[in-house]
Write a structure and sequence with these properties.
The chain has 164 residues and is mainly alpha-helical. Helices cover 60% and strands 0% of the residues. It is built from 8 helices and no strands.
Length: 164
């Protein structure tokens, strides 16, 4: 039996300044999860391990997100200040929960006649004939009682039902 020797070097992942900067930049652009890890030059597993062992990784990601949001908000506020009405409305809607009032006016100038409506309904009624059936024999209650009694006495109920 021969053994083969495979060279193995454990990959040491450290939160270097360059890696933290790459994580910061990716988070600033709005990337999350696996996309953030790959954009920062790490595999998703490496990013998770690094974040688990070094709190600076999470801080770089949070700081990148905050700075990206700040840049976008600043740009939007500057546009609103310079007279962009759409930017101002978006700020009001999304940051302050403002909703434009919606008013609907409905006016109907038509009069409805109840007697006219009843006459039209009467015209639509279908005239039909019917026959009154005075008495229908109901054996369902007696049949159920008979089947229960027969089943208690040990008689084959299926045979009795099939025979009837």
């Amino acid at each position: 039996m021969t053994f083969y020797s495979f060279p193995f070097e454990p990959q040491r992942i450290e939160a270097t300044e360059a890696r933290l900067e790459a994580i910061y930049d990716a988070a600033k652009m709005g990337l999350k999860g696996d996309s953030l890890a790959l954009a920062a030059g790490l595999t998703p597993a490496q990013h998770r391990k690094l974040a688990e062992f070094d709190p600076l990784v999470e801080f770089a990601e949070l700081k990148g997100r905050a700075d990206g949001e700040f840049t976008a908000a600043k740009t939007l506020h500057e546009a609103a200040r310079d007279g962009d009405a759409k930017a101002a409305l978006d700020i009001l809607k999304h940051q302050h929960g403002w909703v434009a009032k919606q008013q609907i006016d409905v006016s109907i100038d038509q009069q409805i006649s109840i007697t006219g409506a009843l006459e039209k309904a009467q015209q639509r009624v279908i005239e039909g004939m019917y026959t009154d059936i005075s008495h229908i024999e109901d054996n369902s209650t007696n049949a159920g009682t008979d089947l229960q009694r027969i089943g208690r006495d040990g008689v084959d109920v299926k045979a009795m039902v099939a025979r009837d």
